[in-house]
Amino acid sequence: DVTEIEEKEAQAKQEQQIIKEQELSNLLHEKRYLKALGLAISLDRPHTVLTVIKAILREADGRKHLEENIVRLRKDQKEAVLTFLVTWNTNSRNCHEAQAVIETLLKHEAPDSLLQYSGIQAAVESLLPYT
Prior knowledge:
mainly alpha, single chain
């Protein structure tokens, strides 16, 4: 019977999730946005990633700080942000943040590099009508 082992694993996973969420909250409070972005992406939390991006843009020189943080993300993290921003771009409340991230990606990534992103074709097709 493995029920007890599975329950312990589920409880450990839930505890780990709570710890990561608390860490994310602390990072946002401390304005450590790069780590907060990375953690929110790893938790697969598009709304939290959007919250971090909005917090960055509210700062003095927000666009510059957003560029610095987006550029420093790994390729897989940038791909995740790209999939998130496709949804953000369809909502008028979040489209400005989505456009800021798109602008940063287009400025700092070579076209050949962008073409290597998974799901780039679908993302572009989804972004065009709203951009």
